[in-house]
Design goal:
328 residues, 7 strands, alpha/beta
Length: 328
């Protein structure tokens, strides 16, 4: 968890750690984009490439005992919260050595030991869970918070409206992060959101809201610092709308016919949060050599994770009915 104050920028050490996490997310996803085409990975896969600054800008502030709830596009959230990268890769390959014993796959990774309460494939399914976790945080009185990551498509769901209203009514420490990447599956946000303003919708429920550039780590980090001070201070929920893009389709195999010609090419040139981070980081005194060394370390980690996952065993048939229900 960061030791900087809300007002202070992250230290050089924190910036290097943030870059490592962002680069790990990017290389994890870029490698999956290749590996999914081999047919070895079961199920649907939704890649997070392009949105790395949001997950890391948010989670760099969080401690081990703070909670996050993810989405179907959740690999970045998991890595940003500290989930084991090799364990995640094993999980996506459906191996018994995965974080969820190979039973969750890409869209259902969870690791309670890291405060990662799970990804799920239900659009808008995360915010109600996050509010429930925030009630526990408030009742314990230990200053912990719960963060709900949600896409722009989720903001049209009634469950999300109810979650925001309940969080305000009960004054619980929930932070709603709306990752607006421009598309709800295949539908543009300008069409799907009648008000054209996701942040404004959240504000209407009675909580403070900020809208930030989700390709700028520093903007997300600063906004999350203010949100966290508000929530940890016992003042109730806070919402952030972060504007970014995704470099791949809604899912792997999506032909993306709804996107303009060369749209992604232009966005990769102008909205790549890693390129933006490197530029600002070197201006702040970090060396290209250190950043390049992180790149090499991350690539080696991803290579090892894939090689190990390919060799790991699948769950035994006897495991089919275990871990389905919680026994009290």
């Amino acid at each position: 968890m960061s030791t900087e104050t809300v007002e202070s920028p992250p230290s050089s050490e924190r910036l290097l750690e943030a870059y490592r996490k962002m680069r790990t997310i990017r290389e994890f996803e870029e490698r999956l984009h290749v590996e999914i085409q081999t047919g070895e990975i079961p199920g649907f896969t939704h890649l997070y490439s392009g949105q790395e600054a949001i997950a890391v800008g948010v989670c760099e502030h969080l401690g081990l005992n703070d909670y996050i709830v993810s989405t179907h596009r959740g690999h970045g959230h998991c890595i940003a919260k500290g989930c084991d990268v090799a364990g995640m890769m094993h999980e996506i390959y459906g191996r018994a050595t995965g974080l969820c014993k190979g039973k969750g796959g890409s869209m259902h990774i969870a690791d309670f030991s890291k405060g990662m309460l799970g990804a799920n494939a239900i659009v808008g399914g995360g915010p109600p869970i996050a509010v429930g976790a925030a009630i526990a945080c408030r009742n314990r009185g230990d200053g912990t918070v719960s963060v709900a990551f949600a896409g722009d498509g989720s903001c049209n769901q009634g469950t999300v409206f109810e979650a925001m209203n309940l969080a305000v009514v009960l004054k619980v420490p929930t932070i709603f992060i709306y990752e607006n990447n421009g598309y709800s599956e295949h539908t543009g946000v300008d069409y799907a959101v009648g008000s054209k303003d996701i942040a404004g919708r959240a504000a209407a429920f009675g909580m403070p809201v900020e809208k930030v550039d989700g390709t700028d780590f520093h903007a997300v980090y600063a906004a999350m610092g203010r949100a966290l001070a508000h929530a940890r201070g016992g003042h109730g929920p806070f919402a952030i709308e972060a504007i970014a893009t995704r470099f791949y389709g809604h899912f792997e195999g999506d032909p993306q016919l709804y996107r303009a010609k060369d749209e992604v090419k232009r966005q990769r040139e102008s909205m790549d949060c890693l390129s933006i981070f490197r530029r600002t980081a070197t201006q702040r005194g970090l060396s290209e050599h250190d950043l390049d060394a992180i790149d090499a370390d991350v690539l080696a980690l991803i290579d090892r994770s894939v090689a190990e996952a390919r060799q790991a065993p699948p769950p035994a048939e006897s495991e089919l009915t275990t871990d389905v229900y919680v026994a009290y």
